[in-house]
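Q: For a teaching session next week I want to show students how multiple molecules come together into a single three-dimensional assembly. I've collected the sequence lines for a complex. Could you give me the predicted C-alpha cells for the whole thing so I can convert them for display?
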Amino acid sequence: MKVLIIEDNQELARNIRDFLAREGYICESCDTLEAAREKLELFQYDCILLDIGLPDGNGISLLNLIRAEYKDSNVLIISAKNALDDKIIGLEKGADDYITKPFHLAELHARIRAVYRRKNLGGTSIVAFNEISLNTDTFEVRVLDHLLDTTPKEFDLLLYFIVNKNRVLSRQAIAAHLWGDYTDNLANFDFVYQHVKNLRRKISGAGGVDYISTVYGLGYRFNSHKAE
Amino acid sequence: MKLTTKFTLWYFGIMLFVLLIGGYIVYYEIQNKLSRVEVVRHQRLNDLIAEQVRTGGDYSNHPTRKRATVTPIAADSVPKGISTYYTRGIGWNPEFQENEYRLLVTSFYNIKGQWYRITTYSFIPSFYQLLPGVVDSFKWIFLLLLVLVIISAGLISKYILAPFKRTLRVIQSFDLKQKTVIRLPDTQTSEFRELNVFLQKMTEKAREDYRTLKEFTENTSHELQTPTAIIRGKLDLLMESDIRDEQAILIAETQNALERLSRIHSSLTLLTKLENHEYEANTTVCISQLTRETLNSFVELIQLKSLTLLTTIAEKIYVPLHPSLADLLLTNLIGNAIRHNVPPATFAEDESEMEAEEGFGGQGGGLIQVNLTREGLIVVNTGRQPQVPTAELFERFKKGNSGSDSIGIGLAIVRQICDLSHFTIDYQYRDGFHCLAVGFSPRVAASKLLQNLSLPLHSRA
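A: Of course. Below is the structure for the complete assembly, covering every listed component.
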C-alpha cells in the first residue's frame, strides 16, 4: 500500500513512517500543502494521511482537490484540534475517517486498514489469518469454520490484534480502541484483561492456535509465527 | 423599583416640602397684607378722630367712636420717635361675646398742647381661621400636581428612556460568539451616548478576549497534543524493539503517565470549551434513545463486573442539549456508575463480619439503576461510602476514593454541562447507594427527584 503522510511535524511523520514501513507500506511524507499538491500530481496513493493544521494553510482545502482529482485515495484526517467543526466538515468534504492526536500508532494503522477494506476490497469483507476469519459485515468470527460466539468488543479486539499482528499492543492502546476517547481508560485495564482472556479461551476452545501472548509489563501481542 | 417610580416619588417628596414652606409663606403674606390694609384704615380713622378732638364737640355716638378710645396722656409717657404702632392679639368681642383675634392701632397726637392717645381696633381673621383656607387651596394644588406628574412621568420617561431601553435589548441579546459588532441606537442624551460608547467598547473587548481565549485553547490543544502524539508514537516503536523486562516496566509506567497527561489535558480543554459556550443547544435530542444506546455500549462492562442493571426509561423524552454533550453526560454518568461500582457485599465485609453474602443473591451483587422520566434522569449504583461530602465531588480533581486511577474530572464535566443547559443536579449517598439525579427543568430540583426515589429492593439490611 502506498501512503502519503501530509504532516508538518517531522518527528510525528517519522513515527508514522517507521511504524507503517514495518507493514511493508511504502510511505512518503511532505510538510506543506504545496509539496502535497506536487506529490499528488506525480504519484498515485492508496491512502493519504492529512494533518489539518499546516504551515501554508488548512488541510481541509486539500480535501476538495483530492476528492475531485484522486477519487481512489482514502483520506484520513489527523488533527490536534478535537474541534467538532473540523470533524464534521472533514467528513462532509469526503474524508474517510478522522483521528485525533495523540493517537496510538496501532490505532492509526487499524483505521487505515478499516478504511482501505471498506473501499478497496469491493464487497468481500473477510479478514482472514490462518484458521481465523472475521467477517466485518456480520461481525462473525470463524475458527476452523466453527462460528465463534463473540461479543462485539471481542470481535473488535480480535480484528485489532490481527491487523496489528506481531506488534506489542499496550493496554492503553487496546482500551482506547475499544472504548474511545472519553472513557477513563486507566480504570479499564481489568476489562482489557478480561476481554483478552475470554477471547483466548474462545479461540482455543474452537481448536484454534492461541496466538495471543502477554508481553511482560506492557500488554499483549498477536504472534503469527506460532502457527508453525 | 422602576426608575420612573423612583423619580416620581422623589419629586413628590420635594413637592410636599416646597408646598409646606409655600403654604407658610402664603399664610404669612396674607396675614401681613390684611394687617397692613387694616392699619392704614385705622390710621386714617385715628387721624379723623384726632381732627374731631381738635375741633371739639361731642362725638361720642359718632360711628367713628364705636371701637375707639381717646385718652389724654402726659407728655412724658409719649413714646419717642414713633407716632403710631399696632399690636395683634386676642381681645374680647362684645358683639359676639367671645374672644377674637384683634388688631389694635394706637396713635399719639398733640392737640393744642395736650397729648392724646387714640386707639382703635378691629377684628381680623386669626391664624386658625386662615389656615383651613390655605391648606385647602394647597391640597388642590398638590393633587393637581400629583396627577400631572404621574401622567407626565409615564409619558416623558417613555420618550426619554426609549434609547436606554433599546440599548438594554441589544445588550441582552449580545452573544460573545457573535461575529458582528453590536449596533446601539443613536441618542441625543449625552449620558446614554456615553453608556453606548462604553458598552460598544466593552462588548468589543469581551468579544476580542473570547476570541483570544478560544484561539489560545485551540493552540494549546494543538501544541500539546502534537508532542504527546510524538512521545506516544516513540513509545509504541520502542515497545517493539528488543527490550528487557525492567525496560518494559519503565515504558509501561511512562505510558501510564502519558495517558493521564493526555486525558487531563483533553478534559480541561473540553471544560474550557464548555465554559466558553461553544456547544449551544440549537435542537433537542431524544434522551431516551441516547440513554439506551449508551447503556448498550456499556453492556459488556456491566456483564464483566457482574452488575445487575435495572432500567426504567420513558419513551420519547426530548431535551434541549447539544448531541455531543448529551453523549458526554450519559457516558460520564453511566461510566462512573460502572467504574466506581463496588458490590455491597465487599464493603459490608470490611466494616463488620455480618453475613453479607445472604442479602445479595447471585454473584457480585453490584447494582445499577437508571431511571429516565420527563422530569429527569437518575443513576443509582452501589458503592463505598465517599470519603468527602458528595457535593465536593463535582469539583475538579476531587475523587471519592483517592486510591483510584481516575483523574476525577468526569463529574466536573457533568456539572458544567448541567449548568450550561440549566439542568439541576444532585448527588447523594444513601445506605450504600450512590444516587445522582439530573433534573431537566430548572423548576424541578434534582434533590426533589431523589426524595421521591425508591431505592432498589436490595438493601443492606
